[in-house]
Amino acid sequence: MKTDICTCPISLSSSTALKHWDNMVRGFLAHTAVTPEHLGAVLHEEPGFAMGIAARGLFSLMLGRREMVSVARDAHRDAVAALAHGGATTREQLWVCALGAWLQDDPRGAVDCMEQAMRLNPADTLSAKVSHAIRFILGDNLGMRRSLERVLDAHEEHPLRGYLLGCLSFAQEETGSYRQAEATGLEGLSLVGDDAWGMHAVAHVYDMTHDPAKGIALIDSHKTAWNHCNNFRYHVWWHKALLHLDQGESDLVLSLYDTRIRQDKTDDYRDFSNASSLLLRLELEGVHVGDRWEELADLAEARADDGCLTFADLHYMLALAGDKRHDAANRMIARVAEKAHLPGHTTHVMGDPGLAAAEGLAAFGEARYDTAFKKLSAAQPKFQVIGGSHAQRDVFERVTIDAGLRAGHLDQVEALLLKRRDLRKGASDTFSDTRLSAIGKLRNINHATAAQ
Fold this sequence. Notes:
Elements: E1 2-3, E2 9-10, H1 15-30, H2 35-45, H3 50-61, H4 66-83, H5 90-103, H6 107-120, H7 125-138, H8 141-151, H9 161-174, H10 178-191, H11 196-208, H12 212-221, H13 232-246, H14 250-261, H15 269-284, H16 292-303, H17 310-322, H18 326-339, H19 345-365, H20 369-379, H21 390-407, H22 410-423, H23 430-451
Antiparallel strand pairs: 1-2
Helix pairs in contact: 1-2, 2-3, 3-4, 3-5, 4-5, 5-6, 6-7, 7-8, 7-9, 8-9, 9-10, 9-11, 10-11, 11-12, 11-13, 12-13, 13-14, 13-15, 15-17, 15-21, 16-17, 17-19, 18-19, 19-20, 19-21, 20-21, 21-22, 21-23, 22-23
């Protein structure tokens, strides 16, 4: 039996199919635009390859789009039928099981299948990356790190070691080991120069440790790590925009928004979250964003019934609130409330903290700041479980803080700011500095008023 680039036994019989499979693996790890083409070539060559069919289904679910669920269900049906013909390896069977679990709204079950595959062969970088990706969607930062640390030794002399280090760097950053994450990510880049995920992990470090100049220099000097990417390149541009915003360069940020981040006006939730969160960050800093909300709000209305990911739903709500589409926002809240008590992981997160967060964002858009703060601060301790990264979820932290400031809850807001700074190991960015300064000024005013 042949083995693939991960040193795993594989039931592909064609050398051509195996070559495309190995290219698909590398492409998936590097977030390249040609990854689907290689997977398509594998299945054209060997249409009964169950793991390849399951990969199509799993990758479809990662898109977080309602219409892709039926694509994933069809893939699962076809993969199960392919398994019935025999010859599949245990790893290949586990991938089909993972797809089935996720389709039952049990993404943790899908992770368990990937972890079983990694126990079969700890050098299985592809299964490690998929486990990492699903845990990222779940907000499972500790699980991401433990999973990768378990298989690190098996990648000592591995051709894909650099990509694994990129994932580990991100997990280290998300668990607060910033200096370690920086070193791990840069080591990975030295091994595989096209590792967009690892490069972006180091950019996260510089964002969280308030070193925007270093982050900008990293992105500018490693374009070969991400200019080959699929839409992930828009996310890298988003990171660059955040770093420039921290330096107060709002005109440049708006230019990046128009020419890079929204270069292609897709409704992919990942692209959408880049855009909506950046516009709101700009508005919180007093920057006028013109009519840019309109395009996003149109897409948000069209996607408001998806209900695939709370992370996506809350970014749709940002756009509805930003464009003052209060009726559409209320319809979305009603949908979330209706689905929140159904069984399953997605609906559980939708109910808590999703519902309170959505209500808070809608209230913020209506300038009902006291309600917004109460709802958002109730949701805030559980923001982690909506998935994504600290940098992505920080937009919700910022709205919570600004709602509290506008409502006059100075002590509670100060506590949130200090907690936010603790997450950054004491680093205080421009956002924190300006809000803490505002709290000091408001307290002086209050004391002066009380003394009169």
